[in-house]
Structures are given as C-alpha cells and as structure tokens.
Automatic annotation (TrEMBL):
<feature type="signal peptide">
    <location>
        <begin position="1"/>
        <end position="17"/>
    </location>
</feature>
<dbReference type="InterPro" id="IPR044862">
    <property type="entry name" value="Pro_4_hyd_alph_FE2OG_OXY"/>
</dbReference>
<keyword id="KW-0408">Iron</keyword>
<dbReference type="InterPro" id="IPR045054">
    <property type="entry name" value="P4HA-like"/>
</dbReference>
<comment type="similarity">
    <text>Belongs to the P4HA family.</text>
</comment>
<keyword id="KW-1133">Transmembrane helix</keyword>
<dbReference type="GO" id="GO:0005506">
    <property type="term" value="F:iron ion binding"/>
</dbReference>
<dbReference type="GO" id="GO:0031418">
    <property type="term" value="F:L-ascorbic acid binding"/>
</dbReference>
<keyword id="KW-0325">Glycoprotein</keyword>
<dbReference type="GO" id="GO:0005789">
    <property type="term" value="C:endoplasmic reticulum membrane"/>
</dbReference>
<keyword id="KW-0812">Transmembrane</keyword>
<keyword id="KW-0479">Metal-binding</keyword>
<dbReference type="InterPro" id="IPR006620">
    <property type="entry name" value="Pro_4_hyd_alph"/>
</dbReference>
<feature type="domain" description="Fe2OG dioxygenase">
    <location>
        <begin position="130"/>
        <end position="251"/>
    </location>
</feature>
<dbReference type="InterPro" id="IPR003582">
    <property type="entry name" value="ShKT_dom"/>
</dbReference>
<dbReference type="GO" id="GO:0004656">
    <property type="term" value="F:procollagen-proline 4-dioxygenase activity"/>
</dbReference>
<keyword id="KW-0560">Oxidoreductase</keyword>
Amino acid sequence: MTVLLVLLALFAPLACTSEVAYDDERLIGWKGETHRQAPASSDTEPWVETITHYPRAYLFHNFLSPEECDHIIELADPVMERSTVVGNGGKGVLDNIRTSSGTFIPRKVDATITTIEERIARYTHIPLPHQEDMQVLKYVDGQKYGAHYDSLVDGSPRIATVLMYLSDVEEGGETAFPKAFAKDKYFDPAVQGAGSWSACAREYVAARPKKGDALLFYSLNPDLRQDQFSFHTGCPVIAGTKWSATAWIHTEPFRPEDLLHPAHLPQRMWQCENVNESCEAWARAGECEKNPVYMVGSPSKPGECRPACNLCRPCPDGEADKQCILDNTRMVSDFLKKLRGE
C-alpha cells in the first residue's frame, strides 16, 4: 500500500498549496513550464517553477516565510557540528566531500517545524511520516558538498529531496546538476536577481540560493530505479554564509516509532536536565557506563541523562555562562576517558 501511495505521488501533478488565494483553483500557483514575466507580487507569493525534467526538479519560490527561515536557524545554530556522510551500516562518517557544519531537528519538535513538514507533505503528495528529521547545514569560506546522489540503497530508499534555502548568499552556494540536460533548462536567472553564476554552476542546470525558496527534485524514477540525472552538488560558498534545511523523503515511513513520542531538541552543554523520566532508573542500573553514547553523550553532543549520571550542573546564565559550560564539558570528557581506561 505504501509503495502504491508513493507511486501515485510520483505521477501526480505537483500541488502548490498556500494561504494565498489564486484565480486558478485547479493549479494553484502554477506558472507553466516556460519563462513568463512574474507579477510584482511574486516577491512574496508562493509559485512553482520547473528547472528541468531530467531530473524532475522544481523550484518553490517563497516556500518559507523569513520568520520560518530565522526560526530554523535559531533552533539549529547552538548545536551545529562538522557534517558527516552516510557510511557503511548507515553510520555518519567524516569525509572531505562534505565540509559544512550541520545538525538535525527532530520531526514535529514545535508548531513551526510541524507546519513546514506538513507543507512539504502537501507539495510532494507524500505523507509526513516518510520524511527524515530535517537536516540544517551551514556553509562558509569555500565549504561545499561534492557531487553525489541522495538515494540510498536500502529497504526504503530516498525518493525525493526538498532543499530549503534559509539565507541569501553573496556568491556561490548554488545547487547544480552536472548530468542534467542543459537544453531542458527552464530556469530563468533573472527571477532570483542579478548576478553571475559561479564557475561550479555556470555550465549546468542549477538553482541559486534565495532565502525562503525550496528546491524539490526526485532521486528515483517512477519505476523506483535511481534517476542518473539526479547527481548534484552544493557549490562552494565564495562570499557570504549559506544556511539550508533538507528534508529527505523515503518510499516507506521513516522510523515511524519516533513520531509516537514527544520530540525534543538535542541537549546543550549549559542545560542539565534528564530528557527521559527513566534516566534515574537507568543510571542506577549502570547504563551510564553500559550506554554512554545515549546517557552521557560527548563533549560536542551532550547525552540525554547527564544529571542522572552526575555529569553536569545547571548553568544559571545559560549560553553566556562560559565557565559552567567548560566545567560540564570537562565532566563528560573525563568520564569518557576513564571509561576507556585512559
């Protein structure tokens, strides 16, 4: 049933739903597949633009409000870490192909994030549970994401990607498709403002980051085989800062059990709270030593049960309390070193 639902979504016309009223109720916001002068109000109204059919890629102009973009950055900024790629066994590993910093925001963590996720589901015709947790990335000073495919070879491959641009970028940072058919390029650079393309994107089908826009492209063909044209790259940021948020969408529900419980943001080092009500019982059962990844975490990613493990103290001044943060970091670091016998 799930696969049938996904196939229907692949063949269905794109839906561009929004709170804005349009004259054409059948294809709300659709501007067609050829260039057309956009009305003056298009600076704020959502509308859809086809970039290419190979791969199937569409640019949702004004998909997010400025406030939604800022909210995502606000949630993610304090817990950003060096980005990883998916390695053997599905684990994240460091690789020079990806030099950004990033973090994940759990699904339905608050009302704003839930609203955005529901909007993604409406635009793609694929239910929210098929989405992964939103990944937020930050690129500066030449940082990039080398050419790659998003589809994973497993029981539920990624069928589509929604890449949301959270900031404008002075130069670079485009999303380019090196294998796409250039002759099929519908995208009008004038729509996103003046300025030249970087060398990374100049010869290819590409989208320039613009705050509030979102790029949808499909990694799989309707027969669920990988679309070879979906090979893409995040071009180096030459000037400015690029913030983006990615929602990867699977053919099957992604970890549906996670949606059965209230979501929470990752702990921060100045916080000293047990995330789970069972933390104290787990600590008494020796889980601080047996399961340190979850209970204690690491100096860069605090665990969920540090108070139960006696490895933190509350920081009265929060993020500004540098000495308290340093003390909490040292407690975790010293505990892990002792556990490793160092």
